[in-house]
Amino acid sequence: MRAVKTEILKAIKDEAGFVSGQELCDRFGVSRTAVWKAIGQLKEEGFQIEAVRNKGYRLLSSDDVITEAELMSSMEGGFIKKIVYYEETDSTNIRAKKLAEEGAPDGTLVVTDFQNAGRGRRGRMWVSPSGTGIFMSLILRPDILPSSASMLTLVAALAVYDGIKETTGLETVIKWPNDIVAEGKKLCGILTEMSAELEGIHYVVTGIGINANMTGFPEEVGESATSLRILTGGPVRRSRLIAVVMKAYEGYYVKFKSCGSLAGLMDVYNEHMANLGREVKVLDPAGAYTGKALGIDEKGELIVEKADGKVVRVVSGEVSVRGIYGYV
């Protein structure tokens, strides 16, 4: 029934007018009762579907629903093999890692409407109110060395940049390595985790949190966070944004795997990078220092020219960019 419901939803979404019940039966090889049950489930999930005798069914509105059926019906191509949706969960990364341990296939996307224990880098809490944000984690099983897994954070950042641009027209920048920023404030955070042995990766989970339809933030993050709705003045259809981000991710992922590095993506990443050519402050455990960001290399490391002319590569850690998140 799950696959039938998804196909029926896609069918009525693709039509401007009515789709007859008989046409749905014939197209998917199911009974009238199966169609009726699927329509009933979709209505319960929040889809406004009009049913008219001798005409069939027509989708009126879905009110930004992000159920499994809505998400799967929105995907293009075969990159996403499976979607697991939770109305509420602790963290999509936690759920995704558990599913990966249980054998979830490459290309599984875990999505929730509400996180009660969302995490960012370094264990920070990620604000995750219900019905407003995008909280998702992608499970991949790439044939790459564990040392290359962190590059997938940068691949995801490029995909989110493209997704936001295509769905809203909004120009953003990428703050190396894992934030999407607009007007000096954070729109999106990305967290990549993995399970691996010395010679290979069992799985990689990349979590993506996008501030989509929030209209405000708690005081402790209000100065550094913003949302697509605040910036554009209107609501964002989350299912479409998720689908567009995944489509963009697929394209970048193919290029990444073909090179085995970010060599083929360096130029586009540097083009969108907030840090490029600007003064940055690197909070190195051995001692903080400032310098000029020159871009990333093929490993995704940030190249920084220090005041004394010495060029160093930042593998990971906190990097502040002047004019962003209060760094002046």
TrEMBL record:
Q: Which InterPro entries match?
A: aa-tRNA-synth_II/BPL/LPL, Bifunct_BirA, Biotin_CoA_COase_ligase, BPL_C, BPL_LPL_catalytic, HTH_11, Transcriptional_repressor_C, WH-like_DNA-bd_sf
GO molecular function list:
ATP binding; biotin--[biotin carboxyl-carrier protein] ligase activity; DNA binding; transferase activity
What does the record give as the DNA-binding region? 21-40
BPL/LPL catalytic domain location = 78-257
Q: What is the enzyme's class at the highest EC level?
A: ligase
Protein name as catalogued:
Bifunctional ligase/repressor BirA
Protein family (similarity comment): Belongs to the biotin--protein ligase family.
One Pfam family in the UniProt entry: BPL_LplA_LipB
Entry EC number(s): 6.3.4.15
UniProt record, GO biological process = protein lipoylation; regulation of DNA-templated transcription
* Function, in words: Acts both as a biotin--[acetyl-CoA-carboxylase] ligase and a repressor.
Keywords from the named record: ATP-binding, Biotin, DNA-binding, Ligase, Nucleotide-binding, Repressor, Transcription, Transcription regulation
Q: Name one GO cellular component term.
A: cytoplasm
Per the record, what are the reactions this protein catalyses? Answer: biotin + L-lysyl-[protein] + ATP = N(6)-biotinyl-L-lysyl-[protein] + AMP + diphosphate + H(+)
What positions does the entry give for biotin binding?
Answer: 91-93, 115, 119-121, 186
Q: Which domain of life is it from?
A: Bacteria
